[in-house]
Amino acid sequence: MAGYFLACCRALVTKGAEVHVVYWPVNAEAPFAFKAPAGVKLYNRREYNLKQLLALTEEIGPSLIICSGWVDKAYLEVCRKYKKSTATVLTLDNHWKGNIRQQFAVLAGPFYLRRRFSWCWVPGKPQAPYASKLGFEESRILSGFYSADIELFNGMYEKHRVEKNKTFPKRFLYAGRYYGFKGLQDLWEAFAVIDEQARDGWELWCLGTGDLEPVSHPAIKHFGFVQPHDIERFVKDAGVFVLPSHKEPWGVALHEFTAAGFPVVCSDAVGAASAFVKEERNGYLFKAGDRKGLRTALEKMIAKGPAELNGMAAESHALAQQISPANWADALMKITETTS
């Protein structure tokens, strides 16, 4: 559960839908505080066993059911029971890797998943091949499952772009969990080895929590976990977004900060880069785990003048408009129209 997902639910309500969300509690390392929008009712999954979940579903009488992945067996049972009478949508964000686990899923897909789901919804191009291999027809595979709260971040862009055009902030920004797979240690090392004079006053600001011990460096600052309603301060005062993940099936944060008008430095493991990063137009890609490549990308940003950086910012903002909560809601409404 996160604010960006509730923004999508809010958009769905504006289409005339009634929205019910059964959710697992938020992660301790990302303790988002959220409130259900009007027209959206929340149910804590921990308070429902299978029998109670089936009873809740019967009471609601849904015209469409969305299931996040296939880990929760109770969710799967609900979808199995309702597939013949209701549109059932599987969501997944895994890239096709061809490993043993995925090969097994492909073999089981037609007999297991297709008996429970009539549609598959993925974030973008990197996930579509896997959905196809699981047995879903191309016409039954939707994209755009993850969307930033575009309205929120577009507003920040418009509010601060004039000031950034005057004085572009010399600050790289990372926002995410403090875990090894996020590539954060690569980022700290790549930034730290850039000569102080070559850094030309640039700093690295990091937002998040996790099991990694924050590195100590005079030009690297740590701010801990930041709630979405407090993020604008960092949008205003930072200039370039960095996402160095070793593994990142999508990465909504990349969508958020491109919408807010940030040039980006991003690893090639980030799924959202397929939609929101165009090499040299609005950012730079590097091979995940390649600290030298990451350093080179950071140095390229440092070497750019304010006019170039602001041009990249405008390009990022434009690219971010491809996916939105409104598109998200439209996709679901189209399914209900097709099924009815």
Write the layout of secondary structure elements.
Layout (H helix, E strand, L loop, with lengths): L2 H12 L4 E5 L16 E5 L5 H11 L3 E5 L4 H10 L4 E5 L8 H9 L10 E3 L6 H6 L7 E2 L7 H17 L4 E5 L8 H9 L3 H4 L3 E5 L12 E3 L9 H6 L2 E4 L8 H8 L4 E4 L5 H4 L6 E4 L4 H13 L2 H15 L4 H15 L1
Parallel strand pairs: 1-2, 3-4, 4-5, 5-6, 7-8, 7-10, 8-9, 10-11, 11-12
Task: Compose a concise summary of this entry.
The protein is an alpha/beta fold. The protein has helices spanning 3-14, 50-60, 73-82, 100-108, 128-133, 150-166, 184-192, 196-199, 232-237, 252-259, 273-276, 291-303, 306-320, 325-339; strands spanning 19-23, 40-44, 64-68, 87-91, 119-121, 141-142, 171-175, 203-207, 220-222, 240-243, 264-267, 283-286. The strands form three sheets. The protein has a six-stranded parallel sheet, sandwiched between helices. It has a four-stranded parallel sheet with strand order 3-4-5-6, sandwiched between helices. A two-stranded parallel ribbon has the order 1-2.
Q: How far apart, in Å, are the first and last alpha carbons?
A: 29 Å
Structural class: alpha/beta
Largest sheet: 6 strands, parallel
Radius of gyration over C-alpha positions, nearest whole angstrom: 21 Å
The outline comes out as globular
Task: Return the CATH class of the largest domain.
Answer: Alpha Beta
CATH architecture of the largest domain: 3-Layer(aba) Sandwich
**Percent range of helical residues:** 40-55%
Domain module count: 2
Low-confidence stretches are none
Beta-strand percent range:
5-15%
Strand order of the largest sheet: 9-8-7-10-11-12
The overall average pLDDT, rounded, is 94
Q: How many individual β-strands?
A: 12
